[in-house]
Design goal:
The complex is a heterodimer. By secondary structure, chain A is mostly helical. Chain A has helices at residues 2-21, 26-61, 66-91, 95-127. Chain A is 88% helix and 0% strand. The relative contact order of chain A is 0.08. By secondary structure, chain B is mainly α. Helix content of chain B is 86%, strand content 0%. The chains are: A mainly alpha, B mainly alpha. The interface between A and B is medium-sized, with 32 and 30 residues.
């Protein structure tokens, strides 16, 4: 709850600073909004690490191959990173570039997920009475 | 690495705007452009350092 107030405060400060600076220097306003977003993500980083600690603890009980869990973790990371970059591109007026970043993220996630898909297919092939 | 960096960037922006305005009014157009460029570079270095920190954090969290 404490860091929620921090996030809200940082967002408000960023918005007001952007509003003040934009008429004088429009390019600096973009920098300020980027830095505000980065600081908010820094505040969230600790929580995300906590969540993943708990996830990995749960995952050790399931006896599933640990490499699959790492792949899922990486996919979530790619998703967050691509989302951040794409919204940054959209903020700075390069929405089409952001769309391309999203497309790149989707393709990278698909390539990362291929081992999971093949392992599912292997399980299916074992179950099938051929 | 807290809110101060936002205020820092905002103040650098206002400062460079004022400096370039003064230089432009006193007839030194080329120096005014250079001052603007210097401000942009300084802020860009700060922002890039912050983004590099963020990417390092993401790398360690998500086991890249």
């Amino acid at each position: 709850m404490d860091s929620l107030y921090k996030i809200v405060g940082i967002a408000l400060v960023t918005v007001i600073a952007t509003l003040i600076v934009r008429p004088v220097r429009p390019d600096f306003a973009v920098f300020i909004s980027v830095v505000g977003g980065v600081i908010i993500l820094f505040l969230l980083a600790g929580y995300i690490a906590d969540i993943f600690d708990i996830f990995s603890k749960i995952f050790t009980f399931t006896n599933v191959n640990a490499s699959l869990y790492k792949i899922i973790l990486k996919i979530i990371g790619v998703g967050y990173l691509v989302e951040f970059t794409a919204s940054l591109c959209a903020d700075t007026g390069n929405g089409s570039l952001g769309d391309k970043v999203l497309l790149g993220g989707k393709i990278v996630i698909l390539v990362m997920a291929l081992p999971i898909i093949t392992s599912i297919l292997e399980i299916v092939m074992e179950l099938l009475p051929v | 690495m807290e809110v101060e960096i936002i205020f820092k960037i905002a103040s650098i922006g206002i400062l460079t705007a004022v400096v370039s305005q003064i230089l432009k009014n006193s007839g030194k157009e080329d120096i005014s452009t250079l001052a603007t460029l210097a401000g942009v570079v300084v802020v860009l270095v700060m922002v890039i350092n912050l983004i590099a920190d963020l990417f390092d954090t993401i790398k360690t969290i998500f086991n890249f």
